[in-house]
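[recover] target loaded
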């Protein structure tokens, strides 16, 4: 073969069995990918760096462990589907057993994603596509530590007396500041922020007060309208009146759309019919013990139903997924008005929609970020969880999906959410809250030597017994402690919003990878996406010589990995690596090309593009 000719390699990450890194100081860094069917691709060279960033990003999507026999060989470990299914069942997040959804999903992945469990089931897909045996489930701690040492400066490993368990220690964090909570924002304070025309002055100061103490219930409905984007922070009274009129008109226009669909139309509109059925079921079981929703003939149940159905018309791509009713119910209780509740719910969903989307990348990234944060904040607890089959943090799934809705009492969740909505001290403060809760439970977990099942049960049992104010104080203290750590890795700074935007890597241009796609495809794969369909899977931007190409290009002669967007290998990595090899003018598909032969109707690809 002509050494000057280039070719692309492409494969589904689910097919990846292992990869081998080049030894240090042996010229250009390279990676050799090896698939489960034995296919071994030629070395992928990184002339301008980027190999470490690529592998680090891949760790968000697959479990990697270092071979005990070859320090340059990394093995890809399948997730354990039983652990995730058990986690979801134990946490009582959904009304049906996950097993039934799993079976349906395996039989018909595309159909199931449009059903009741819908986008959340896609979180299961990544762990169910290629299950192997279920022994040796946990990554050896020595291998975890080796990887951590590559990524986090100042860390070292110390051996504990207990066989098979190691603790990751590090440079000591600075002292944790003492944090004081304040009184809620009062009506008098609230009114003092408005000028004669109704503009809010000193918006940042106002948000600080809300973060420190929340909002008095008497003014909560008005304050939430600003926090959730119903009103603009810089609006005057006149503009807000105009905004509200437009929102009222738009809401009833959308409501009329589904209200006027005939039974005959709905018979041929399967997706809407399925969503209606799921909403019907969920409305009847959402917060029925709360007086606002109690009673079989309670009119508020109909309002809850109408808002959720209208949201399906407002955001038809997302539609309805179990868990959304948990987000709506506290908002409706506060607003006591259908239109106001709808638009505030829409604003709240803008913040958490990535939790419910079909590819489930948002959930996977957030669980991974909790793990990364704990590696620095509490390496002892992190190592313990890893050693007891819980390093995937599946037990936090419910916390993140519905933002602690079922972990606190109803009046407390209102206070917690308004604190989170201030985006103080960072947009990922909910992840720090997770750390604070786990720190409070650390002694119970360790002293009782809980394993996977016991950890899961204990986390479920502490629901409605977590002290809110103490948790918020502890969470803010953890943030300040990490912020003041001089050797805090950039990856943690990104999560905490401590890096200037100019210092963020290219992959973080989509807000800390929360909305990153999940496909790493060849330059030709994206061209098959149907016109007008939604591209759910942005790709690694390392085009093979053309600025518009999407994917990974490798030179047969060890030639350049061409820069795209200013980075030799931008780390906006995805799960599906659709790799085709091109020789001369011809093309052949290598190992199935899992990444991208065209989106199905509505922008969903039936191939392995689902990613958690």
């Amino acid at each position: 073969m002509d050494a000057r000719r280039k070719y692309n390699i492409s494969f589904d990450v689910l097919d990846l069995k292992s990869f081998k890194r080049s030894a240090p100081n042996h010229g250009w860094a390279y990676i050799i990918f090896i698939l489960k069917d034995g296919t071994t691709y030629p070395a992928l060279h990184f002339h301008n760096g980027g190999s470490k960033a690529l592998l680090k990003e891949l760790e968000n999507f697959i479990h990697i462990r270092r071979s005990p026999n070859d320090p340059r060989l990394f093995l890809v470990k399948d997730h354990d589907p039983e652990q995730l299914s058990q986690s979801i069942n134990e946490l009582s997040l959904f009304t049906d057993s996950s097993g039934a959804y799993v079976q349906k999903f395996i039989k018909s992945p595309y159909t199931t994603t449009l059903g009741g469990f819908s986008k959340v089931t896609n979180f299961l897909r990544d762990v169910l596509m290629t299950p192997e045996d279920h022994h040796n489930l946990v990554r050896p701690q020595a291998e975890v530590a080796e990887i951590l040492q590559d990524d986090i400066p100042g860390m070292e490993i110390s051996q504990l007396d207990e066989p098979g368990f190691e603790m990751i220690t590090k440079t000591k964090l600075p002292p944790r500041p003492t944090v004081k909570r304040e009184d809620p924002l009062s009506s008098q304070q609230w009114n003092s922020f408005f000028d004669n025309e109704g503009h809010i002055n000193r918006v940042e100061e106002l948000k600080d007060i809300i973060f420190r103490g929340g909002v008095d219930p008497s003014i909560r409905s008005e304050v939430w309208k600003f926090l959730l984007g119903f009103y603009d922070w810089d609006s005057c009274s006149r503009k807000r009146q105009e905004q509200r009129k437009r929102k009222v008109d738009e809401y009833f226009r959308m409501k009329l759309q589904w209200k006027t669909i005939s039974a005959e139309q709905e018979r041929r509109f399967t997706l809407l019919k399925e969503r209606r059925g799921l909403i019907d079921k969920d409305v009847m079981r959402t917060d029925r013990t709360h007086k606002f929703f109690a009673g079989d003939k309670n009119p508020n149940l109909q309002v809850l139903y109408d808002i959720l159905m209208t949201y399906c018309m407002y955001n038809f791509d997302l539609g309805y997924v179990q868990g959304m009713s948990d987000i709506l119910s506290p908002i409706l209780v506060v607003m006591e008005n259908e239109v106001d509740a709808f638009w505030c719910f829409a604003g709240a969903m803008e913040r958490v929609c990535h939790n419910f989307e079909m590819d489930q990348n948002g959930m996977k990234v957030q669980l991974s970020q909790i793990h990364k944060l704990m590696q620095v904040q509490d390496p002892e607890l992190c190592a313990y969880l890893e050693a007891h089959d819980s390093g995937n943090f599946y037990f936090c799934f419910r916390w993140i999906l519905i933002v602690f809705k079922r972990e606190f009492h109803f009046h407390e969740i209102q206070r917690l959410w308004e604190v989170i909505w201030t985006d103080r001290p960072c947009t990922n403060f909910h992840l720090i809250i997770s750390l604070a809760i786990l720190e409070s439970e650390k002694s119970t977990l360790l002293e009782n030597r809980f394993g996977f099942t016991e950890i899961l049960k204990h986390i479920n049992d502490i629901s409605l017994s977590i002290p809110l104010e103490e948790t918020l104080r502890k969470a803010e203290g953890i943030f300040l402690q990490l912020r003041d750590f001089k050797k805090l890795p950039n990856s943690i700074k990104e999560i905490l919003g401590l890096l200037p935007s100019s210092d963020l890597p290219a992959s973080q241009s989509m807000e800390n990878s929360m909305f990153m796609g999940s496909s790493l495809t060849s330059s030709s794969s994206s061209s098959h996406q149907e016109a007008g369909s939604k591209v759910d899977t942005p790709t690694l931007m390392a085009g093979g010589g053309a600025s518009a190409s999407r994917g990974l290009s490798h030179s047969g002669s060890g030639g350049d990995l061409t820069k795209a967007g200013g980075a030799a290998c931008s780390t906006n990595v995805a799960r599906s690596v659709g790799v085709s090899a091109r020789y001369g003018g011809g093309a052949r598909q290598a190992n199935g090309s899992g990444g991208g032969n065209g989106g199905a109707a509505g922008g969903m690809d039936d191939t392995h593009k689902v990613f958690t």
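[recover] notes: Residues 237-259 form the longest helix (23 residues).
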